[in-house]
Amino acid sequence: MGWPSGYGRRVLAEVDSTNAEAARIAGGLSGPEWILGLRQTAARGRRGRAWVNPAGNFAGTLVLRPDETADKLALRSFVASLALYDALASVSGTEAGLALKWPNDVLLNGGKLAGILLEGIGGPGGHLAIGIGVNLLAAPGREAVEAGAVAPVSLLEETGVRVLPEVFLDALAEAYAVQEERFVTYGFDPIRSLWLSRAARLGEVIVARTSRESTTGVFETVDGAGQLVLKTPKGRVTIAAADIFFE
């Protein structure tokens, strides 16, 4: 493995959250930058939820400034998911048990191993922060997640492989650079196809919940805009954002 050309790298002994640090430094960056926090004191997940991050786990953020529309920026969650999958396969030596859960989680043996949080910085035309958390060493307890959600797991517990956060950062940065180049060069189609080939519960019944409603249906595909497509008794339903639960 080698560090990808053109990407910055900074490792912090302690930080409130790497996404918060990204917002503070974005204006002074001349190119993409990876930030690794060896200890986070105020980690966040999607929708403002707390992210439990025991010492030894991975907490990092990639700061980018792509000149793209908001809808295309959002597709970086798929790019990052593929990079996470590849990095995890690289450090563990196998793809066995790995799967991608729409829209932004990585599963191992059916449990949640990693999550992604995208945040815009500075409004339209600003930077994009891609926050990534991976349970390398330990998983939070079942009580740390909402009822019905996928239980957390760790790489060490599931595979016996112990990986330092700095080592994982190198693997992830290299894997991300490959997928980013594919996305920028060829668009979303090859990213979408590869993501679907690794998708969890494709062709099975799942539940998509938003703050307003719950939709149950067969996970049919992800469309060209990255939206979930479910086949329901009332017909095909397209969902832009939701939490996914398995039956």
Tell me what you see in this structure.
The longest helix is centred in the C-terminal third of the chain and has 22 residues, at 165-186. The termini are far apart. Strands 1-2-3-7-6-5-4 form a seven-stranded mixed β-sheet, with helices on both faces. The relative contact order is 0.15. The protein is of the alpha+beta class. 27% of the residues lie in helices and 29% in strands.
| End-to-end separation | 39 Å
Separate helix tally: 6
Residue stretches low in confidence (pLDDT < 50, at least 5 long) are none
> What is the residue-averaged pLDDT?
93
| Radius of gyration, CA atoms, in whole angstroms | 17 Å
Give me the secondary-structure category. alpha+beta
Q: Note the overall shape.
A: globular
Helical content stands at: 25-40%
Number of strands: 12
Please give the largest β-sheet.
7 strands, mixed
Taken in chain order, the helices and strands follow as EHEEHHEEEEHHHEEEEE
Question: Biggest sheet: strands side by side, in what order?
Answer: 1-2-3-7-6-5-4
DSSP strand content: 25-35%
Layout of secondary structure:
Elements: E1 8-12, H1 18-25, E2 33-37, E3 58-64, H2 70-73, H3 76-92, E4 98-101, E5 105-108, E6 111-121, E7 127-134, H4 155-159, H5 165-186, H6 188-197, E8 205-209, E9 214-222, E10 228-232, E11 235-239, E12 243-246
Parallel strand pairs: 1-2
Antiparallel strand pairs: 2-3, 3-7, 4-5, 5-6, 6-7, 8-9, 8-12, 9-10, 10-11
